[in-house]
Amino acid sequence: MSGATVLEPGGPNAIAVTNGIVGDEWTLWIVQLALTDGLTLYNEWLNAGPISNAVLSARLNRLVQNDILTRSDRRYRLTGRGRQLWPVLLSMWAWEQRWVDPPDGRLPGMRHTRCGRTFSPLMSCEACDGAADVRDVRGRFGPSGDWPRSIPTGVTRRRAHTGHRPAELIPQTMSLIGNRWSTALLGAAFLGATRFGEFEQRMGAPPTVVADRLRTFCDLQVLAAAPNPERRDWMVYRLTAKGRAFFPVVATAIEWGQRWYTAPEGPALRLTHTQCGRAFHPRLRCSDCGERLRGASVQVVRGRDERLTAG
């Protein structure tokens, strides 16, 4: 397994870099098919979905530059860094299957080979094995973690358009992390922001952008708005059950990013599991047998077809 990439001092931190990768549908689609179907050749991806040569070339080159894929003898193979994206993909699939209504069958089922049952992943704390959701985890910025450094630079909405989207992907997930301001608002909500001014200050975005993102998150039922009891003309925005359930996606993405992209000053975000008081590192468990999941013990099930998600 290759080592971590050391980021530039004072530049985008691990959170920003990670979102620039996992906030792109085509990138996730390429990694997904490498994990589940073993694709390695350019033409295999080109024939697998409605992707253009230009988009495929750009994404493959970027994945190689980020040491997620390596290229040799015309083949693209996942690195250790790339294979370790499976918990992020698994968490995204599970959230979409549970919360995006109506289900349309585009996402596969998941089977744990150790117990033979289909499952949904449950998140736990590596240190104590205790269950963990957003209410059990406290987060604070580390030495490289302030708001400007944590937001991806530029406009990062990179979704496919006009119906030409890859199959088995995650439209509402991209609505939450496929745009730099959506990502910033989501992070602010998970770190405790509830009022318009708090979101505006932490995001560093114009008021019109903040209002648009809040409206979108409310439409998606990720946030719920209610009158502020102190100022009835102001609103308070709180995460719904659907919004809180997105936390495993955020936690596994942060865990992956801080493992593989490090800033000289130190980590961008420090998470603590309130039940045991130790540093929180998320681990996924099988909802049926409770055993900790590993990439090689998870099968993607498409009808009668079963394929491994990771080696």
UniProtKB/TrEMBL annotation:
Domain of life, per lineage: Bacteria
PROSITE patterns tied to this protein: HTH_HXLR
Entry keyword annotation includes Transcription regulation: yes
Location of the region described as Disordered in the Swiss-Prot/TrEMBL record: 143-163
InterPro entries per UniProt: HTH_HxlR, WH-like_DNA-bd_sf, WH_DNA-bd_sf
Alphabetical keyword list: DNA-binding, Transcription, Transcription regulation
Keyword Acyltransferase annotated: no
Record-level Gene Ontology MF annotations: DNA binding
UniProt domain HTH hxlR-type: residue ranges: 11-104, 165-265
UniProt cross-references to PANTHER family, sorted A to Z: TRANSCRIPTIONAL REGULATOR, MARR FAMILY (PTHR33204), TRANSCRIPTIONAL REGULATORY PROTEIN (PTHR33204:SF18)
Entry protein name: HxlR family transcriptional regulator
Taxonomic path: Bacteria, Bacillati, Actinomycetota, Actinomycetes, Pseudonocardiales
